[in-house]
């Protein structure tokens, strides 16, 4: 039974490496799962998520190991893109751009998560990177759309 590239994206969102396992790329999948697990443990991400969902942003910020968590957006988004590409979803030569901009913006969100306030409230090291990641996705999609329009006008 053939699975869609979109399904691989959702499995990779659940845990980086699952999409690769579904694509039959066992070694690559295990590498992504190991990297995700190591970054998760070293950055205290699960505890930070719990504090963030409880609204304890100062505690979440204090518990975050930013040196390790800085790896997470890039590894996470690369694993998602890789599973999508291996499943045949990357038909456009620019399909990587939304994933790249998501990783970049997510990392920027993480950098500013301990100081940036929105409507007077700290958003923290979990929610601000997610917000920025979504913004990065839309920026990447917009750039892909602009490139396609420019190529269409140029006739290539």
Automatic annotation (TrEMBL):
Name of the featured protein: Uncharacterized protein
Record field: transmembrane: 66-84, 96-114, 126-147
Keywords associated with the record: Membrane, Transmembrane, Transmembrane helix
